[in-house]
């Protein structure tokens, strides 16, 4: 009986302990990744860098509302970005283009990215663009002003929106400039190559014929007016892996091309010291001098029409054949008879 009571007591104790024990922890579940935000529609440009003060830019929407933007801010279709005086704003446009805006400058992004490229409007101020070619097919960037439209393919250039119109300066590559979008699409624009500039005064007429300008002076003036443009352009060049024209490189003198080996040898021989002049010939007493000999030769010359005297014949050569005397001719003959006296 006692054993039965102990068994029941132990069983009840174990049951109560099992009821009060904590359940084992559940196995950890895999962390759910955060949802990926979809790309914003209509994004045309991204702010890459801002130098100067303030370190933000003012962005105005098409409806008139404004917001501040910093590095990494995206600009969508219909928005306008304002770079204040003293600022330099660098922006990525599309995949293979960057623009540098020295303040004060206003640029509106009013064209979506298409197969023809990206479009923007420079309302006032300046814009330096750097566009990289991709596998032989150039990414196209179209820039509009109040008086002109420009199509860019793989180049380094500067556009200035002046009160009298637009001014385009090409540092490297080629830019096509037309009066409007229709003229550019029809191929009616002018091609502005390296070291050329063109102006468009009225939107209804074609730009003037491109003329030469000093790239060195233009870059120096741009850096002087907006310190930091050189470093901003260099940063854009490094990110795009696209060449650009720098102030330092344009100021270096161009080394002349190497001359061929034959020309170098000729130049070396020309630099050798000249040989001393030979002494005059000795004068023999009684011999006529050079002028006298020349006069004598002129006096004794043969008149025209007179046959030249025959050359003296050469003396006969000795025969190498021995002389043969007939037999009997080598003996002396009989003596001659004496003459009679008195004859």
Textual characterization of the structure:
21% of the residues lie in helices and 32% in strands. A hairpin with a 3-residue loop joins strand 6 and strand 7. It has 343 residues and is an alpha+beta fold. It has a 15-stranded mixed sheet that branches. It has a two-stranded antiparallel ribbon with strand order 10-11. The chain is elongated. The protein has helices spanning 2-20, 181-185, 215-225, 229-240, 247-251, 261-271, 290-299; strands at residues 43-51, 57-60, 66-69, 74-76, 79-83, 88-93, 97-102, 105-114, 117-131, 133-134, 137-138, 140-144, 149-162, 165-178, 190-192, 196-200, 211-212. The protein contains 7 helices and 17 strands. The N and C termini lie far apart (224 Å).
Spans of at least 5 consecutive residues with low confidence: 33-39, 135-139, 251-257, 259-270, 297-302
Distance between the termini: 224 Å
Main β-sheet description: 15 strands, mixed
Radius of gyration: 53 Å
What is the β-strand count?
17
Strand percentage lies at: 25-35%
Which structural class do you get from the secondary structure elements?
A: alpha+beta
Overall geometric form: elongated
Would you tell me the overall average pLDDT? 75
**Tally of helical runs:** 7
Helix content: 10-25%
H and E string: HEEEEEEEEEEEEEEHEEEHHHHH
